[in-house]
Structure formats: structure tokens, C-alpha cells
Amino acid sequence: MFYREAGDFKTSYADDSQTFPIRFDRLRYYAVVAVAFGVIPFVINDYWANAVFVPFLIYAIAAIGLNILTGYCGQVSLGTGGFMAVGAYACYKLMTAFPEVSILIHVLLAGGITAMVGVLFGLPSLRIKGFYLAVATLAAQFFLVWLFNKVPWFYNYSASGQISAPERTILGHPVTGAATTASAKYLFCLVILFALAWLARNLTRGTVGRKWMAIRDMDIAAEIIGVNPLTTKLSAFAISSFYIGVAGALFFAVYLGAAEVGEAFGIQKSFLILFMIIIGGLGSIFGSFAGAAFMVLMPVLLKNILVGQFGWATDLAAHVELMIVGALIVIFLIAEPHGMAQLWRLAKEKLRLWPFPH
Amino acid sequence: MRKTITAIALAMAVATPAMADLVVPNLSYRTGPYAPGGIPYADGFNDYFTLLNERDGGIGGEKVVNPECETAYNTEKGVECYEATKGSGALVYNPLSTGITYQLIPKVSADGIPLYTPGYGRTSAANGKIFEWVFNYPANYWDGASVAIKYLLDQNGGDLSGKRIALVYHNSAYGKEPIRTLQELSKKHGYELIEIPVDHPGQEQKSQWLQIRRDKPDYVLMWGWGVMNAVAIQEAANIRYPMENFIGIWWSGSENDVLPVGDGANGYKSLAMHGTGMDYPVYGDLKTYVYDTGKASGAGDQVGSVLYSRGMYAALVISEAIRKAQELAGHSAITAAELRNGFEALEITEARMAELGLPNFGQPFAASCADHGGPGHALIQQWDAAAKKWNLITGFIAPDDEVLTPLVMEDSAAFAAENAIAERCN
């Protein structure tokens, strides 16, 4: 009944190749965008922005970035936290060195710098793959965190090694610093996420994405049919790192406001984002969103239910929360090894036939 | 997909405590690698307010509630806890984490809620001219570093030149805080400073202690927290480092840090900013009103320990500030802004401490508009492994303000410049 192609006639090539070819899907997409831009900014408060939406939006950007590299191009990376740190520190240095330039430009430049660093650490991918590459990127993670801890220039010689974001405005509204309103934070992250997700979706549908997938599926075959592994792998590293760098910059400047590298961008961040794309679904933009939502929302939801509703002790709740989230991850992956994106695809298939499956 | 989130969102009801009481949120951590420090502190903090509620019916007739929120010493969770509790009329925050403190300083300044960080947090917040909403009396890290060096000077007949002092520190904002002070002091006293970082969470310190065994520094100072402390003391015992030359900051001097090491920890020293043990009259009341009635926070097994005492001390200072604020405002249901005035006008004398059942426990101090840092005196305590007891081996030692004051001014001026803050109190 839902998601039917019947009666949805395509009369032009443009219609035929659009992102959401099914009308119902398209309308749903427009509805989500309308709610995200038109409703949430007016009702959001500080708690919802800082505990739920802003981290979700930022992690979604990082997850899309990692999904490009790991899900689409098949290059396993454990350096996500380190690359986010590059984005954060680049943004900090730019913000403090050029206070008159717009923060939006700084965030994008931070992504660009991270892309360069990503390409550098992507070079080993031309010789090694799989677990060996994962270990090489792990080295990037530890090296970058060490570097930002060791060299005081990166944190402007502050006594504590902390970086903290000064106030910066867009169109007169602060988007970083303590005076930022919940809706300004949310909208700033949303606009960037929307643009980047739109770009990622279209990249993966085009030549670039098809090359990535060819390399992922079988690199030798891809090379034989004329895909250049050098440019393909490095472009995946560059674009992926750009996304992750932007996420890192937003994470520091908009979400946390102050950060120290070991704690905010440690190895656990790399794993967290890797779990997001595995649970959400490798090689799927929707999966990146679903995974980020799952990993950000579940702990907050469980905490509110266990402590807020049931009145449990906070330590008991924290331990039970870890167990429940862990169990849910295992159950999800047993029920659907291809992640939540595959569940969504199956649900759509079922909805098309509903209510007459035979 | 966003719809699914919205659906979950609607299902999520955030419970908030009643607005009528004095809300003092307890951002605690009872899980993770820093729980050995977080649990006793949170218990002491809660128990003291329970005592006030049970014995005196609150403060000035208003009950105090302490909604607890688990941060796991993690800044992201700390931010979430802050946002979750601030809407409930929270009067003051005491997150027991330097990392979270750095997050919260701009937020509390914008929201107008005082932040009280005794013995931790951003040291330069002692300058009340810049940090209107932050208070860190009675002592801070730079005071601690200076007191440790003064003690060593005393041990060496006033001369440290040519001595080598290693700093083993948690590689975070917390552990890095004393470095600048120790560097300045090394210029003045002529010792050589060796910086040895330990990464979070600090369970693996073999290489650091190998370096100490090789370099043989005359003294080792430690800025550690959580499991890092016990591991460091164990490693020091393993390389047979003379324990009496090993001095921790007050966060590295609790029973949980030395007990796991057993006899090897005998003679280990640490700074202290207050007394410890149960030889204080307040424990009689705590026993009657809190422990015996089953209202003790947590498992109740931390009573009288160093960090329990510190949590209690923090609660005591906050309750005194509330009292002062009620007096200034002329009514008992105070707001966060009124409490800030209370913090700024707070004076705790020895007579008042004795009245509260804690004679000779902490140093007397008085805050002012410009001074949010207190005198910064500290004691040295030494662990007696046979008696399982901390013994105070000095009286209160004053820090070297000649070195510290310019550092505080410099750092707070940098913060003021970054954030375009004008000086107050002029």
C-alpha cells in the first residue's frame, strides 16, 4: 500500500534518476526536512539541544564520513577520533588566529585540513588492506592525540592544555560560546549536516561512489576495468576525513565549547563511530543517521527511564545501561547483520505488500 | 527517520525535582576508572545535606535536595547532566572534575549559576574580578604545587638547587595545571623539573616508572586521580622508590589509593586541605540522624575517609554560603544569583567550624569580590600502613603568593581577553 511505484510515472530522465524515485518516500523525506527545519528550531530547549540533537547531528556527520571510507570504499579505519581532533584543533587555531572570518568558513577549512591529514595517513592503504590498514590508522589515532598533547602551539600555550571556543557569530547570532541559543546551535549543525548528507548521497550515486564500491567489492577486478586505485582510495580518505574533520570542529566549537584531546577524541571515539556505522548499516547514508541516533539516544533514553522514572541509584542505572546497550547491539546484529538500514529496507518491502502479502 | 527520533523523544519524560526546595545537584561519578574517588566524595556530599535536613529541617527552614547525576568523569555526560538539572532551579554546581569545570565555566557565567570547585578546576578562577560566578576556595592546584615545594625546601634546609623533582601527572587539564607553577618555582629555587605524563585512565605506568628508576629524581610529585593513584604507588613500591620522597596532591591522598598497595605504601605522603578521620563531633550527629536511620548515601562504607571528609567539607561550605545568602537576601528561598552573593560574602572562621562540629578541620577563610580563591594553605599527611591511617605531619603551610599571584593574574587576563570580559570590583 505504501512505497508503491504503481501510478508513479517517470516522463524524463531527471525524474528517473532522482534520489527518491518513489513518491511516498520523497514525501516522507520532505516531511522530515520540513519538521527538522521548520518545527524543531522553534520548540527546542537547551536540554534537548545539548543532550540529544546537537550530538546526534554531529555524530551523524562523522558517521557519514566514516561510512564513505569504510562502508563505501571498504577501507577499515580506527583513526576517526584522531581525525576529529585534527578538525577541532584546526578550527581552534583558525578561530583564534583569524577572529574576523566567519566561523562557517573556519569549520569548512578545518575539514579541508583534516582531508589533507587524512590523505597522508591514507597512503599506506595503497599497500595494505583489511586488519593491517586498521592498525595503520590506529597509529594515526595515537599519534595525533599524542601530538596535540605534546606541542603547546596547538592549544595556544594555555596552562591546562585545554582548548576553548571563543564566541563567534553568524548573521549576528552567536553559534559558539556560552551565549548561544539552543536553536542557533541546532540550526548551524543541521544546515551543515543537510548539505553534507545531500552531497554524500549524490557522490555515492555517481562515478566517484561507484569507483569506491568497485574497489570495496574487489580491488583487482576494479583495477582491471580501469578504476585507478590510487585516486579512488585517496579520494575516499580525503572526503571521509573532510566530513570527520567538520564533525570534529563542530563537536569542539558548538557542542562542547572546551575540549582536551585525550578525553574528547580518544580511541573510544573511534570505536563509537565505528559501532555507529556497523549498527546503522555499512554503505548506507540512512544507516549513518540511524546508527548515530541509536548510539546517542539509547544511553540518554535509558538514563532518563531508569533514573528519572524508576528512581534507581545512578551507579546501578549506569551499569545496567551499559549492559542493555551492549545487549541491544548484539541482538540487533544477530537479528540483522546488515544493520538498521537493512531493517528499514525490509520494512519498506513489507509495507509495499501490506495488507495483502500474497 | 527523524520521525522515529521524535517519537522516542516524546516518550522521554525528564523527571525534575520539586521547585520549592533548595536544589543542589550532585554531579557525581560512581562508575568507571575514577569511581574510587567519586564514590566517597558523593557520599560525604549527600550525607551532610541529609544531616541538615534531618537535624535542622534544612537550611533556614528550606529543605535541600540533591538530585544526583552520573557523569563517569566524562565531559560529554557532564554537559548533559548540567543541562538536565539546571532547569530544576539548581543553585550551585560542584562537578568534581577539572575537565567538566572547564566546560561549565562559560555556561554558568551565561546562565548565572555559581560554580564551586574546592581544590580543583581552573586555578585562575581565584581572581574574582574576572570569574564572577566561579569560586575555588579554600585552596587550588597552584597553591598545592607551591606548598609541596615549600615543604621540600623545609626538608632541605631552604635550598633545592641541583635537586631533581619529577612530576607524574594525569595527562589532562587536571594534571597539566601545576606545570606552569612548578616551572616558575624551579626558576626561583633552582631545581630541575622532569615532567612525566600518564595517559587516561592510568592503569599502565610501567614505562613512566622505569624512567623514574633510571633518572632517580630526588623527589616525585604526583597529580593523579582514580585508579592512576593506586597504580603509581604500587609501581613506586615495585621499584623501591623511597616512599617518603613521594608526595601526591590532595586528590592522590585517600585510603583507596594506598590500601591496595599494602605495606609497600608505608610512608607515602600527600597534601591535604583538611583533617580526616572520625574524631570530630559532627560524626555523632551524622550517626544519630543519618547512618542509624538508614539514610546514608551509597553503601555507607566510606564514612570518615579522606574523600568522604572532602565531600562533606564541600557540602558544608555550600550550606554556609546558602545561609549567608539567605541572610543577605532576607528570605530563605534564595535564587542562584543570591547564592552567588552569599559565596562572595562568605567567611568561615575557626569558631564557626567548631560550632558546626568540625574543630581544627579546615583553614579559616574569607572571600571577597576580588578574592574567590582563599588563602590556599595545605597540610602534609603521611600514610601509616600498619595502622591504616593518615597522620598529619605538618601544620598548615602557606603557599608562595609572590610567585602565584602574577600567574593567576596572567592566566585570568588571558581568559578575559579571549572572552571580552571587563574587570569587576574596581
From TrEMBL, chain A:
<dbReference type="InterPro" id="IPR043428">
    <property type="entry name" value="LivM-like"/>
</dbReference>
<feature type="transmembrane region" description="Helical">
    <location>
        <begin position="50"/>
        <end position="69"/>
    </location>
</feature>
<keyword id="KW-1133">Transmembrane helix</keyword>
<dbReference type="InterPro" id="IPR001851">
    <property type="entry name" value="ABC_transp_permease"/>
</dbReference>
<keyword id="KW-0472">Membrane</keyword>
<feature type="transmembrane region" description="Helical">
    <location>
        <begin position="101"/>
        <end position="123"/>
    </location>
</feature>
<feature type="transmembrane region" description="Helical">
    <location>
        <begin position="271"/>
        <end position="296"/>
    </location>
</feature>
<keyword id="KW-0812">Transmembrane</keyword>
<protein>
    <submittedName>
        <fullName>Branched-chain amino acid ABC transporter permease</fullName>
    </submittedName>
</protein>
<feature type="transmembrane region" description="Helical">
    <location>
        <begin position="130"/>
        <end position="148"/>
    </location>
</feature>
<keyword id="KW-1003">Cell membrane</keyword>
<feature type="transmembrane region" description="Helical">
    <location>
        <begin position="27"/>
        <end position="44"/>
    </location>
</feature>
<feature type="transmembrane region" description="Helical">
    <location>
        <begin position="316"/>
        <end position="335"/>
    </location>
</feature>
<dbReference type="Pfam" id="PF02653">
    <property type="entry name" value="BPD_transp_2"/>
</dbReference>
<feature type="transmembrane region" description="Helical">
    <location>
        <begin position="183"/>
        <end position="200"/>
    </location>
</feature>
<feature type="transmembrane region" description="Helical">
    <location>
        <begin position="236"/>
        <end position="259"/>
    </location>
</feature>
<feature type="transmembrane region" description="Helical">
    <location>
        <begin position="76"/>
        <end position="95"/>
    </location>
</feature>
UniProtKB/TrEMBL annotation, chain B:
<feature type="signal peptide">
    <location>
        <begin position="1"/>
        <end position="20"/>
    </location>
</feature>
<dbReference type="Pfam" id="PF13458">
    <property type="entry name" value="Peripla_BP_6"/>
</dbReference>
<dbReference type="InterPro" id="IPR028082">
    <property type="entry name" value="Peripla_BP_I"/>
</dbReference>
<comment type="similarity">
    <text>Belongs to the leucine-binding protein family.</text>
</comment>
<keyword id="KW-0732">Signal</keyword>
<dbReference type="InterPro" id="IPR028081">
    <property type="entry name" value="Leu-bd"/>
</dbReference>
<protein>
    <submittedName>
        <fullName>ABC transporter substrate-binding protein</fullName>
    </submittedName>
</protein>
<feature type="domain" description="Leucine-binding protein">
    <location>
        <begin position="24"/>
        <end position="385"/>
    </location>
</feature>
